[in-house]
Write a structure and sequence with these properties.
This is FAD-binding domain-containing protein. The protein is an alpha+beta fold. The chain has 16 helices and 36 strands. The N terminus is likely disordered.
Length: 724
């Protein structure tokens, strides 16, 4: 379950010391999830943790999947898969409706299990505190009553005067939480919802052997309900179908004599329970008669006003401490489990103490609205029939189940954490398909930060190399200027212009796992762009760049907006560094051939292929300003609207700084080179013929120079920026 954070803090990675108040289902789930993340966990339980009896719990798909992810299989601790829902008419005992959830369960990723609470509690405790399993075992302290909670200092004070501090506190101390009051505005008091409930367990055999009740357990695994105007009885199996759990919900005033406020372990009166349900069918009364009064419990169903927040400083409250649930949808335990797993998701190993507050904000964003929405569904599901009618409300249990069950708190919260970390890292790049998150590429090699130690080591072990041939030639300015978008112009008024065919082969590229590729483009020299504010930029214009690999084409088009197209590029070197032949083709059809010969070494030049700039020589117009970088035009067509652009704007890439590990380039020069560009028809170049024809028609007035530059260390185009 562990994940790796992507934080930027310089603090050394270590386990967080986390103190959890309460060892109920929520507290132990949190301890287990955080243990599996590699943290140091201490749990403080006020009771002596005597095993509770007489209660079962729903583990719907949303909760069961999380437990399974952590290695807890409810089916192996006596859990029974819910295979149906049946509602009977209370007064007659006739069937009102039946739902086969075994078919419905195919919609859910994980089964809906009905589990004895004590069995789940024991399993969680053993997994959280046992020596086996991932991470360091959590330490459980019983009979440890918390007196004070310091959220800012992450400190707990106990009734005996001792205290303990950590990096972070979790309040999982139930509906009467002490931790809750340490959150501003969180000093909420639970109140009577108007309903109370009896609960008890019966052996399944006691029902199947009784003619009055045998039909009620004919389909073991079903959730069975009798819902009257203002009271209801719910029955479902647990403990490998050997026990049936019962919850009898009724108006609080009718059992108030049994309730002193001591919690949900108060003894209930069997006679009073029978009186409360006296109008129910004989089969129901036969069930209630079987209850063992010595084990019959009654408790008040408590509700609470919504807290303004679940978090403050270094404290988070979860489960009933944060959002006490009524039992009408069986989601109270499930939401506590979701809380615990979501907390662990935002605190992977390597999270720094200084990052905790930010991570708690993510937890709150993931949990606050969902928990309260399910609370709202639960309150509606528990309303009396008359109250629903008076408010014009209807129950939509399929909507409730779809929302409740169809959620994975781990996946949801880890995605939220990922987005949080991505927002902090300005080096991240996104391309389609964006659904999968950050895209690796030349400006995010192997998905890592470009200046990370890992990338540095890889580049040192396998240096990135480039080999660039360039042929600079004279051509017609009036022909070339037809390529220039609005705002671009030649700096010189001369009708003869200079352009270059530049072919670069890269090898050992870290972002390609040590692989490489070639590119060939037309570069038009002596261009300027006038921005809307009147300022000018001077550089070289790139109308088209061919590359022979998909990845650089996609990254260059998507991230930088470059005018890239695919073509096969073959570079053959002859006689060492003295000559070369380059061909440009598409599926066997060649439409460009370039040769360079007679290359001889020259003095080192600045990084790049055209480092020299023209100087004034005698009378005449002054030379153009130095070319500071490369221009091109970004264009993205609109979907469904031919001829219309979603995006169109000029881009400028300044001449890059020398890359990491760059050595002085080796440069070779010649005056002997040829350029042969051939036009083709659509049959041979179906997607490129229009470009090949334009290139073939470009006037050639002679080669000015040719060069070969070999470099170790490859500069990136990440400095590209929009001009207007």
């Amino acid at each position: 379950m562990a994940t790796t954070p992507n934080g930027t803090s310089s603090e050394p990675a270590r386990p967080l010391r986390i103190l959890i108040i309460g060892a109920g289902i929520g507290g132990l789930t949190t301890a287990l999830a955080l243990r599996q993340q590699g943290h140091d966990i201490q749990i403080f339980e006020s009771s002596k943790l005597a095993q509770e009896t007489g209660a079962a719990i729903h583990l719907a798909s949303n909760a069961n999947g999380l437990l399974r992810r952590m290695g807890l299989d409810a089916g192996k601790i006596g859990g029974v898969e819910c295979v149906g829902v049946t509602e009977y008419i209370p007064q007659t005992g006739a069937v009102k409706y039946q739902i086969d959830t075994s078919q419905m369960s195919k919609m859910w990723q994980h089964p809906w299990h009905l589990v004895h609470r004590a069995h789940l509690h024991t399993a969680l405790k053993d997994m959280a505190t046992g020596q086996e399993g991932k991470g360091q075992a959590a330490k459980l302290h019983v009979a440890s009553r918390v007196q004070g909670v310091d959220a800012e200092g992450a400190t707990l004070t106990f009734e005996d005067g001792t205290s303990v501090s950590g990096d972070f506190l979790v309040g999982a101390d139930g509906v009467h939480s002490r931790a809750r009051s340490s959150i501003p505005g969180g000093d909420k008091k639970p109140f009577d919802s108007g309903k109370s409930a009896y609960r008890f367990l019966l052996p399944t055999e006691s029902l199947s052997s009784d003619p009055q009740t045998v039909e009620l357990v004919s389909k073991i695994g079903a959730l069975v309900m009798w819902i009257a105007e203002d009271r209801r009885l719910v029955m479902y199996p647990c403990v490998n179908k050997t026990m049936m759990n019962f919850v009898a919900i009724h108006p609080s005033k009718e059992s108030e004599a049994d309730i002193t406020g001591a919690g949900w372990q108060e003894a209930g009166s069997k006679a009073r329970m029978l009186h409360i349900y006296k109008d129910f069918a004989p089969s129901v009364l036969a069930i209630l008669e079987k209850a063992d009064e010595s084990k019959l419990k009654v408790w008040q169903l408590l509700d609470m006003e919504q807290m303004p927040s679940f978090i403050h400083e270094k404290l988070a409250v979860i489960g009933d401490a944060a959002h006490p649930f009524l039992p009408h949808q069986g989601q109270g335990g499930g939401q506590a489990i979701e809380d615990g797993v979501a907390l662990a998701a935002v605190l992977p190993f390597g999270t720094k103490p200084s990052e905790i507050k930010d991570r708690l904000q993510i937890f709150e964003e993931c949990r606050y609205e969902r928990a309260h929405r399910i609370q709202g569904y639960t309150r509606t599901a528990g309303m009396d029939t008359a109250d629903l009618a008076a408010k014009g409300m209807k129950l939509d249990m399929m909507e409730y189940m779809g929302y409740n069950f169809g959620h994975d708190a781990w996946d949801h919260t880890t995605k939220a954490l990922q987005k949080h970390l991505e927002a902090r890292d300005k080096s991240l790049r996104f391309r389609n398909p964006v659904e999968f998150g950050v895209s690796p590429g030349p400006r995010r090699p192997l998905g890592m930060h470009p200046t990370s130690a890992e990338i540095h080591a890889l580049r040192k072990g396998t240096p990135e190399k480039s080999r660039t041939y360039s042929i600079r030639f004279r051509t017609s300015r009036t022909y070339l200027q037809n390529l220039l978008p609005a705002g671009f112009a030649f700096t010189s008024p001369a009708t003869v212009a200079s352009a270059s065919i530049i072919c670069t082969t890269l090898d050992g590229m870290t972002w390609l796992g040590g692989g490489g590729y070639s590119m060939l483009g037309l570069y038009i020299h002596g261009i300027n762009y006038t921005k809307q504010d009147g300022s000018k930029f001077f550089g070289t214009y790139l109308p088209v760049l061919f590359e022979n690999a998909a990845d650089p084409i996609i990254t260059g088009r998507d991230e930088l907006g470059m005018p890239k197209l695919f073509a096969d590029i073959d570079v053959k070197e002859n006689d060492g560094n003295k000559s070369s032949e380059i061909s440009l083709s598409w599926r066997g059809t060649t439409f460009g051939t370039f040769t360079v010969s007679g290359l001889t070494p020259e003095e080192p030049v600045p990084n790049g292929v055209n480092g020299a700039q023209p100087v004034q020589r005698g009378p005449g117009p002054p030379p153009p300003p130095p070319e500071a970088g490369t221009f091109y035009n970004r264009y993205i067509p609109s979907v469904g609207e031919p001829g219309k652009a979603d995006v169109e704007y000029p881009v400028f890439i300044p001449k890059p700084e020398a890359a990491e590990g760059t050595e002085a380039p080796k440069s070779f020069a010649s005056k002997t080179a040829t350029i042969s560009l051939q036009g083709k028809d659509w049959q041979t170049l179906p997607t490129l013929h229009h470009i090949a024809d334009w290139l073939a028609a470009m006037p050639m007035y002679g080669v000015e120079e040719a060069k070969l530059v070999r470099s170790i260390g490859v500069s990136d185009s990440g400095g590209a920026r929009r001009l207007d």
